Request: fold
Amino acid sequence: MLSSAIDDAIFDAGLHAEAMAELGPQLSAVLGTQGCWIQRVNPTHGEVMTAHGFDMSGERLYVERFYAIDPWLAKGMTLSPGKAHSLDHHIPVNSFLNGEFYTDYMRERADYVHCMGAHFHLEGQTYALSFQRALSVGPFDEAAEARFDSLLPSLRRAFLTTARLQQQADHISRLELAQDGAPLTILADRGFGLVWINHPIPVDAPVRTTEAGGQQRIDVGHGLGAAIRMATQGGAGQSSLLRVGRWAIEVDPVRDPPSRRPLALIRVRDTAAEAARRVRDAAIHYGLTAAEERLCASLLGGLSPQDHSDLAGTMISTTRSHLKSLMAKMGVTRQAEVVSVLASMRG
Reply:
């Protein structure tokens, strides 16, 4: 009987990405192995997302060079899903020893060669687990398979929970992006192809699309091409912030929910319009006068009370009086807190 501690760890892994990343070493300790991979496999795009590997620094090498010839993926996925298998029974050890995958990848990582694994097909994804032992330790026996089998129902529930939570999060995000006032949001692939857009591009926005080969493509001006490449490079994609006049273009790495392929999430924000909406919402919420509303717009735009007075042609004492009234209505005591309150409005 396995301890309840590993059951608790598996349960936590279904709810928290951090716990999933820590699950591999815990499973390895319970099953007496030197290495563990927990993978989400999408054969269509040739991507493998590794929640934990025995050498995380080698993940990119594995994805780029050995995914197609990994004996576990090539043979293991043809076996019965949801059941532990010692791959030694199905894959000759020589297929490891004589292959490029073993020579270039596994031999560098302490001679791992014996493999035991299982996989599940859940919510359009395949989740694969594989455990490795060094050649000198010896193969997995029936007792090891039985221990692994006893964990599989809990692991299946954890993966299913993870998949459904991700689906719900993606659905909620897209609903929010479709609301009126949501910033222009675009999903683009690494070839600059338009995958999804939440509403038509404003005429004056600094992002444009063209049609090429029957597909809409993102124009790559203003540094957008380089930002998309950085976000979709795989592994640890990088975020970028571009500024074009009153527009801010945020580019972040994401994964397509069905396929997990790398995409760029592009948010095109009209910062002037957002600031105006924040001031308007604050005026309604706090019952501001027109003069106080104009002062809010200046403060949110980075102007000082003196700057505001000079531009408005009013006495600084009048502006300070408006600021004092404004702080009282917002329940704050400092000018910086006024700006913080304004910035927290929905926009």
Notes: The mean pLDDT is 79. The chain has three domains: 4-172, 182-271, 287-344. The chain is about 45% helix and 20% strand.
